Design the sequence.
């Protein structure tokens, strides 16, 4: 089972967990196979990521990262690693946090080239 | 004489209008006279506060479809206690407006604090809390102790900052090593001196060790995790540039759904700019 972002969703993928809306109501049942109509539901409800059946990732890279410039990828991973140095042992939540932080950092670095998080 | 948390916040209640505004609003609410109009009158006496609150209420913080242009209407839509808590948040930021520091960026300080407030509020929403604004206030104030420390003992704090930067240690640990206490304890003491509710005081005092809080563990855990998340997102800084040690149990207290973190990242990025502007623009 792995988590993927809405960007990566394709028809034919199978849900490993039900998709809930922000109130906890079931939008899509577990184990269904996604088609155009169910993907539209995900987009309409702004679901950011889903869990699908598939090969368990050994690393915490999502397949989003396949098209990323390798220099940016390395830099992002190094900076996130330093950032999390004192955060503690990696339970599943911290792993998730690191994964999301890395993906966000990659987006930032790719956008403005110097990684400045000026908001 | 070595500084203590108590000595650092001494006189702080006189330096800020936070206790005054809070007391006035609270008296009105508990007197049973808290009609939307009456609260509007109290808040309306402060035009700056009114303007800020209305900006906040009309921002992606709430995402209301129509425009809310009076305080009474804001009270009706947002809730009485919620508006009181938002008023606290805006008053805090105003009362610290004149502060500057040679050693840390005040703007970055508030960016981190506002982001933490937003994050805590979102987390509390997942936990179906009835008053999420309370968590916004706690998140906003979680590092206010550090602001007090940089004001009252700037050279000592700068030493702590430099030592942490030099060794790569967490600033929190260097604080404890050098002073025997940390900014969380100072923050809690300040909030108590302002006579704000005990749950906000506890959330701030124990935001680095929520499991050690005797009560209000949920509140402390929310602020703890919100702080960890905002550090991971690198929004602003209160001097610390690394993710603090994360209490694994705190996640379980929160009961976030499995896509909760992704939603939180999304929402914080969506809300941050407008909320920050509402609270800081002139």
Sequence:
């Amino acid at each position: 089972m792995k988590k993927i972002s809405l960007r990566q969703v394709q028809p034919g993928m199978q849900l490993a967990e039900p998709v809930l809306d922000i109130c906890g109501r079931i939008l899509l049942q577990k184990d269904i196979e996604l088609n155009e109509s169910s993907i539209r539901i995900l987009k309409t409800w702004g679901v950011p990521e889903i869990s699908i059946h598939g090969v368990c990732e050994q690393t915490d890279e999502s397949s989003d990262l396949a098209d990323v410039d390798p220099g940016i990828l390395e830099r992002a991973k190094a900076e996130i690693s330093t950032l999390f140095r004192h955060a503690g042992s990696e339970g599943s939540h911290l792993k998730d946090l690191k994964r999301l932080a890395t993906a966000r950092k990659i987006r930032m670095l790719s956008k403005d080239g110097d990684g400045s998080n000026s908001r | 004489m070595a500084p203590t948390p108590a000595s650092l916040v001494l006189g702080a209640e006189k330096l800020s209008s936070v206790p005054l505004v809070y007391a006035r609003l609270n008296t009105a609410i508990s007197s049973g006279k808290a009609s939307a109009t009456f609260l509007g009158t109290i808040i309306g006496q402060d035009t700056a506060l009114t303007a800020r609150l209305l900006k906040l209420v009309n921002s992606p913080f709430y995402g209301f479809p129509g425009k809310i242009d009076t305080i009474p209407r804001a009270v009706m839509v947002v809730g009485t206690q919620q508006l009181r808590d938002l008023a606290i948040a805006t008053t805090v930021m105003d009362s610290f407006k004149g502060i500057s520091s040679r050693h840390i960026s005040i703007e970055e300080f508030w960016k981190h604090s506002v982001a933490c407030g937003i994050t805590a509020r979102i987390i509390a929403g997942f936990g179906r809390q009835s008053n999420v604004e309370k968590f916004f206030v706690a998140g906003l104030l979680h590092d206010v102790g550090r602001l007090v420390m940089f004001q009252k003992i700037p050279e000592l704090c700068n030493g702590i900052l430099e030592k942490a930067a030099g060794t790569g240690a967490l600033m929190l640990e260097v604080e404890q090593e050098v002073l025997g206490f940390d900014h969380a304890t100072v923050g809690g003491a300040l909030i108590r001196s302002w006579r704000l509710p005990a749950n906000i005081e506890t959330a701030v005092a124990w935001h680095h060790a929520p499991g050690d809080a005797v009560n209000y563990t949920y509140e402390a855990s929310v602020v703890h995790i919100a702080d960890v998340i905002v550090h991971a997102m690198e929004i602003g800084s209160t001097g610390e540039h690394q993710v603090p040690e994360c209490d694994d149990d705190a996640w379980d207290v929160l009961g976030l759904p499995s896509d909760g973190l992704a939603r939180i990242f999304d929402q914080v990025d969506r809300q941050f700019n407008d909320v920050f502007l509402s609270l800081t623009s002139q």
Summary: Residues 3-51 of chain A form a domain with the Molybdopterin biosynthesis moea protein, domain 2 fold (CATH 3.90.105.10). The helical segments of chain A are 36-44, 70-83, 92-112. The longest helix of chain A spans residues 92-112.
